[in-house]
């Protein structure tokens, strides 16, 4: 394994040269007044003159441009250091309002006064993310779908039309192009150590951001346009962010973590200041700063393990502009580009835990996607929740501990840190589609259970209506449900069945909870599984919508009944509704039971036996069609209960035939 002490840089020679040396080759002092007007505005023409172009195709010559802009950046840095905070605020604050993150840019100015390396790097990471978000807002003045990647955003015609192509070329020298300094990427992906990022480049980007504000102000006056800022992403359901509870992240364990970073083989020594600053920020309740600092370090630590275990040590360094970086996406994949099996999960002591956690919090579409959203400026840094920071810090401490020397065993068993290690061992994916399906099923079940509490008219009043004296049809449907459940008894825990009352003993909250607690490996789920799960989720969602419509409709009709505002036909329909929902709840719970049983089956069957899952999907889609029709019939606009009864009868007949031959999936696979 590459020793953390032996790595002196994660920048490849060409990238290291571009960032650390190229902009310092011209030593002539540059007069700030050349690019600064008398009233403090940026003279863009003078700035753009320092961008050089290739004679062959007139594209940007990044090498010459970086060399030419080096003295300009140094001049800007010295200029900012000559200003007091009050002078900077008076001169530039109004030109930063367009970013919707004025405070972040004012903080960057403060950082530049002391030029502490780690803080400069942190400031630059925050500056680039906020600048990208603001440029995306500007893009939407002329375009529709904002590009996801910064390089595509900066190369867009829309921004060139607003700011001018020459101005965009200046920006691309610093960020967004793999041929330029590419400061955003080398920092956010953990390639640059604190000492490798010159403060003058941070100062220049702050200066250019104010200059962009001046150009935008002129453009909006000319076009009478209004810049609208997209709302920040807000994390909801924070109770789901409880893998590492905050109570385990007290000052004592943070002090242990500060010792761990000095001893763990997971930490490159050149990156040690980032780790220390991240833990300090967390203790100071600066949760966004802590996570911004930690995420790239988790990436570079995992990259160290990845490149070692897969025997490609050269990929520890930044790739050239013609190749891809080794990033989280590739490190978490099942196979490498050459189709060989990724060995990183083997190296991790608990591969499912580490990979599941990283997929959950970084990659899964329904997860928080913390790195993406932070690095692209989608999150309000001032209100970043501790609950989210707890997860990243908790995971980081856990992985530091796992990759500590053997003589650290006593520390791993320490009464303070052991609960945190136990949390990691118990981790199960929360945001994988399978996990979300389980959550959907339980939420739907709870909604259906509310039907029992719905207000209803007295039974004798329902039976007085002509044509509704008996309920033979409903009795027939209940009998079919019982027959189906009897066929499913072999697949549910025996303590959940009672021959005296199959429906009420099997279709219970306890059984669904128990089935949803069944552990299913979500890592690297095969495509057939994901396609099946997608249909099952749609079925569950439709069931939930039916339940919500029934609850809303029943409450409304009861209030109208009590107030005697129902017409004769509406009263008749209301009574049919009351008769129907007596068994409809059992039908929906039966479907939820089938969903959970099929979910448990599909993963194991797909791994053991090939089967015609297209035929299986056809069956599931017929169930989906039933639930979609139910949504229509039970809607306030339709309210068709006779049709609901008839449709349900046909569906139960179909389900009974299938259950007679075992569960559909098991039948196809055997």
Automatic annotation (TrEMBL):
Keywords: Membrane, Transmembrane, Transmembrane helix
Superkingdom field: Eukaryota
InterPro entries reported for this sequence: DUF4209, ERMARD
Protein name in the entry: EMARD protein
Gene from which the chain derives: Ermard
Species whose genome carries this gene: Sylvia borin (Garden warbler)
Limits of the DUF4209 domain: 131-211
Annotated transmembrane regions: 577-597
Signal peptide, first to last residue: none
Record's keyword annotation contains Transmembrane: yes
């Amino acid at each position: 394994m590459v020793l953390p002490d032996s790595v002196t840089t994660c920048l490849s020679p060409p990238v290291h040269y571009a960032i650390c040396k190229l902009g310092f080759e011209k030593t002539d002092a540059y007069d700030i007044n050349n690019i600064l007007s008398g009233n403090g505005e940026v003279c863009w023409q003078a700035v753009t003159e320092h961008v050089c172009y290739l004679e062959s195709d007139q594209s940007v010559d990044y090498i010459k441009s970086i060399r030419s802009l080096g003295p300009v950046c140094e001049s800007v840095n010295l200029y900012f250091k000559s200003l007091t905070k009050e002078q900077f605020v008076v001169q530039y604050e109004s030109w930063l309002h367009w970013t919707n993150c004025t405070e972040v840019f004012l903080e960057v100015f403060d950082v530049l006064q002391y030029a502490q390396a780690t803080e400069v790097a942190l400031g630059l990471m925050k500056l680039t993310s906020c600048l990208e978000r603001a440029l995306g807002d500007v893009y939407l003045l002329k375009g529709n779908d904002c590009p996801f990647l910064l390089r595509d955003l900066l190369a867009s015609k829309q921004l060139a039309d607003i700011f001018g192509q020459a101005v965009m070329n200046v920006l691309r020298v610093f960020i967004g192009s793999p041929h330029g300094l590419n400061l955003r990427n080398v920092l956010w992906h953990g390639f640059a150590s604190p000492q490798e990022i010159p403060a003058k480049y941070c100062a220049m980007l702050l200066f250019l951001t104010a200059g962009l504000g001046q150009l935008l102000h002129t453009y909006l006056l000319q076009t009478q346009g209004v810049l609208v800022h997209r709302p920040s992403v807000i994390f909801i359901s924070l109770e789901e962010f409880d893998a590492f509870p905050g109570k385990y992240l007290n000052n004592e364990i943070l002090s242990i973590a500060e010792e761990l970073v000095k001893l763990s083989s997971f930490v490159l020594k050149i990156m040690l200041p980032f780790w220390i600053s991240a833990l300090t920020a967390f203790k100071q309740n600066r949760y966004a700063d802590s996570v911004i600092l930690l995420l790239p370090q988790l990436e570079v630590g995992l990259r160290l393990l990845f490149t070692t275990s897969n025997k490609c040590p050269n990929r520890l360094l930044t790739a050239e502009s013609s190749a891809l970086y080794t990033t989280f996406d590739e490190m978490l994949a099942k196979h490498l580009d050459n189709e060989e099996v990724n060995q990183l999960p083997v190296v991790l002591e608990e591969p499912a835990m580490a990979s599941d956690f990283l997929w959950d919090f970084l990659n899964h579409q329904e997860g928080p996607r913390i790195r993406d959203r932070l690095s692209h400026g989608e999150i309000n840094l001032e209100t970043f929740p501790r609950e989210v920071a707890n997860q990243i810090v908790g995971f980081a401490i856990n992985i530091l501990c796992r990759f500590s020397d053997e003589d650290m065993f006593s520390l791993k068993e320490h009464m303070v840190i052991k609960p945190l290690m136990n949390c990691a061992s118990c981790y199960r994916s929360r945001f994988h589609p399978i996990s979300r399906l389980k959550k959907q099923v339980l939420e739907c079940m709870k909604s259906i259970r509310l039907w029992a509490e719905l207000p209803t008219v007295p039974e004798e009043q329902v039976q007085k209506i002509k044509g509704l004296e008996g309920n033979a049809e409903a009795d027939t449907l209940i009998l079919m449900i019982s027959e189906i459940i009897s066929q499913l008894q072999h697949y549910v825990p025996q303590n959940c069945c009672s021959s005296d009352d199959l429906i009420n003993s099997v279709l219970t909250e306890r059984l669904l909870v128990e089935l949803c607690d069944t552990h299913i490996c979500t890592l690297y789920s095969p495509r057939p599984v994901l396609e099946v799960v997608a249909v099952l989720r749609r079925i569950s969602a439709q069931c939930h919508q039916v339940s919500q419509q029934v609850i809303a409709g029943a409450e409304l009709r009861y209030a109208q009944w009590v107030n005697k505002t129902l017409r004769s036909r509406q009263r008749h329909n209301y009574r049919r509704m009351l008769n129907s929902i007596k068994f409809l709840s059992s039908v929906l719970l039966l479907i939820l039971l089938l969903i959970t049983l099929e979910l448990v089956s599909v993963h194991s069957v797909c791994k053991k036996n090939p089967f015609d899952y297209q035929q299986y999907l056809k069956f599931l889609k017929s169930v989906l069609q039933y639930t979609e029709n139910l949504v229509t019939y039970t809607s306030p606009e339709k309210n068709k209960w006779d049709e609901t009864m008839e449709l349900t009868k046909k569906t139960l007949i179909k389900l009974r035939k299938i259950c007679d031959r075992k569960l559909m999936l098991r039948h196809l696979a055997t």
